[in-house]
Design a protein that fits this description.
184 residues; alpha+beta; Alpha-Beta Plaits; three-stranded antiparallel beta sheet; 6 helices; elongated
C-alpha cells in the first residue's frame, strides 16, 4: 500500500508557523514572569512538589513498636515484583527466640531502586504490612551500587509503624462492621 503525501507549501517548508507558535509561547511566559509575577519554574531544593493522595513512592521496610523488623521473610513481595527488583535471603531453619511473634526474619533484604517501577504490588501482597510506599520521589545516588538499598537502609528510611492490628484482622473487622450496619 502506497500512501501519497501532500506537497508542503513554501511557507510550511520554511517552518515559520511552527517557529512562530514557539516564540509566542516563550513571549507569553516572559510577559507573565516580568509583569504579572507568575513563576513557571520551581526552585527544587527549597520548594517541594506537593504529593497528591494515592502517590506511589519508593518502597521501604518498617519496624513494629518494639523496634523489630516486621518482615517475616515470606518472600511474597519478591515473587510478585514484576521487574524482580526485590531480593530476599531467608535466615534458614534456625529460629531466633528473641524475635517474638515472628518465626523468621530475612537475613538479607535488598531492593534495587533502579529496577523498581513503584507499582505497589509489594505493599499489597505483604501479610504483615512490613513494606510501605512512602511519599518519597527524590531518589539519588552517585553510583549503581548506592541505588541498591539493603535491609538497614530500608528500615532507617521506613521508620516505625505502631499499628498492632494485622492486615487480615483489619479486613475481618471491616467486614463485621459492614454486616452490623446492614439494613434488614
Amino acid at each position: 500500500m502506497i500512501i501519497k503525501r501532500t506537497e508542503l507549501s513554501w511557507l510550511e517548508r520554511m517552518y515559520f508557523p511552527t517557529l512562530w507558535s514557539g516564540l509566542r509561547v516563550t513571549a507569553r511566559h516572559f510577559y507573565d514572569t516580568l509583569f504579572r509575577g507568575g513563576r513557571v519554574t520551581m526552585e527544587y531544593p527549597e520548594q517541594r512538589w506537593t504529593v497528591p493522595e494515592g502517590y506511589r513512592g519508593a518502597p521501604y521496610l518498617v519496624k513494629d513498636a518494639e523496634d523489630r523488623t516486621k518482615c517475616v521473610s515470606c518472600q511474597l513481595c519478591e515473587f510478585v515484583c514484576p521487574p524482580k527488583a526485590i531480593k530476599i535471603t531467608p535466615p534458614g531453619p534456625a529460629v531466633d527466640p528473641t524475635t517474638g511473634n515472628v518465626e523468621k526474619r530475612p537475613r538479607e533484604f535488598e531492593i534495587n531502586m533502579l529496577r523498581c517501577i513503584f507499582c505497589g504490588f509489594c505493599q499489597e501482597v505483604c501479610p504483615e504490612e512490613a513494606i510501605f510506599l512512602m511519599k518519597d520521589y527524590s531518589l539519588t545516588g552517585l553510583s549503581r551500587k548506592e541505588m541498591i538499598y539493603d535491609k538497614e537502609k530500608l528500615l532507617s528510611l521506613g521508620g516505625v509503624h505502631n499499628d498492632q492490628i494485622r492486615k487480615w484482622k483489619k479486613k475481618e473487622a471491616e467486614a463485621a462492621s459492614q454486616e452490623a450496619f446492614k439494613p434488614e
